[in-house]
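[job 4471] stage=fold_predict status=RUNNING
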Amino acid sequence: VIRFSFLCASSQPFQVFQITETGLMKFHKVKNVFEQEGFSRQKRGYRNINDIEVNMSDPLFTKQWYLINTGQADGTPGLDLNVAEAWQLGYTGKGVTIAIMDDGIDYLHPDLASNYNADASYDFSSNDPFPFPRYTDDWFNSHGTRCAGEVSAAANNNICGVGVAYNSKVAGIRMLDQPFMTDIIEASSISHMPQVIDIYSASWGPTDDGKTVDGPRELTLQAMADGVNKGRGGKGSIYVWASGDGGSYDDCNCDGYASSMWTISINSAINDGRTALYDESCSSTLASTFSNGRKRNPEAGVATTDLYGNCTLRHSGTSAAAPEAAGVFALALEANPNLTWRDMQHLSVLTSKRNQLHDEVHQWRRNGVGLEFNHLFGYGVLDAGGMVKMAKEWKTVPERFHCVAGSVQEPHKIQSGNKLVLAIDTEACQGKDNFVRYLEHVQAVVTVNASRRGDLNINMTSPMGTKSILLSRRPRDDDSKVGFDKWPFMTTHTWGEDPRGTWVLEVGFQGEEPQRGVLKEWTLMLHGTQSAPYIDQIVRDYQSKLAMSKKEELEEELDEAVERSLKSLLSKNN
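[job 4471] inference complete, writing structure tokens
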């Protein structure tokens, strides 16, 4: 029996008739009747969480929701790193070494021992080759061991959980556990065995107290520069940095490690897609992974290895986010060992997903070439499956150029209630050898003093209309003397854009008390390439989507108009 609905101009507009195949043939306008066979079609890119077949014997594997999120611990199904797809493609981190720069690693742990790279490890706190954590009664020095398990915990050994790149090698660089840090310890750690270590994971930085402005010193800066230029046989060391745990009281653009162009700054989301309460937001964050949830569910934390052969469900913070990213990058490096440090940044921008991430304060937006970003999450959550697939076919990005686009040197006063608005018109060094046509990083080097530094707010808008929040209010920062001295505020939000045109800087105060200040310098630094074919394709796709969206809007308007006319007609007939 076949059911048909006919629209009739009568007091009963919708009538249903049941007609057999033979009866249907009796209608004079019906020429043929064919029985249709049903078959399957599937949405491409859609992943049913129940169809993922990954079997691990490790007892905590089912609790590692950031690997495969089935909704455990009140999470959102499907909101994870999509490692299952990368694993099923055969990528598990084999041949890649990740260094955990931290308070040491329990390299005797049965879930880490088989993947521990002793030759690439060192203890810069004690100056010996054995980076074992110093014992404390409260297990304070468990940080590095927990991070190491996220990356390289062995699979199918019935111990704890599974690392994102469970066949990778992990090196321990113990450098955090001493009364104070020195430039030479940081520099030595960051430059340790750069031809053996592929990825350096750092879950530390300046104090997250909402009033510190600090970054790498001279030796460490030189070590980073040498790493990206000479590490891995010239392909560049990959530095992964946690964006910071200062929450809404801080801004990670005040952290010179997380906001460096040479690092990949990673923020975190919780298992239902919201921001963690400790997340710092800033325009330098490139992408996100996961950390513990807001709810007091004991299984909402990050499951990983712990000191002295133990396991834990309570690893947390953006400390947990950076090692997960390092693991995803290890999968990509196995898929394509020729990736440069910049290739990894481009892949992060292009393959990270909005998924179901949402922030109560900052909305998702698109930049001038259509790339979707968020002030807190960067370009979204890392997608391991998407990244390894793109990495396999990836061609090394073109040469990178640097252009000083312009500078404002004369002093300008800032007062509460009035925004200071400055503009720089630039051709982005067009006609010169260092012309930048497609942006990667943009830096606004600013010197500014204020009666209360924490009330300063700085925004910058690109010629293609993308607004970056370079500095948000930091209510705990009472500084009135130091200010910012040639501080390089960085944004990744204009990635792929054409920098030629007018850049606008807005500086003002937010807060209850009136403040005053002086901006002494703003220098605009552009970093990028002269060619980037994939950007042109993204722009075409974006414009096509916009056109389709407008077409759909017109069709919806037309449908609504037809519906209104139809209702009016039926009303008259009634």
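[job 4471] summary: The chain has a mean pLDDT of 90.
[job 4471] exit 0
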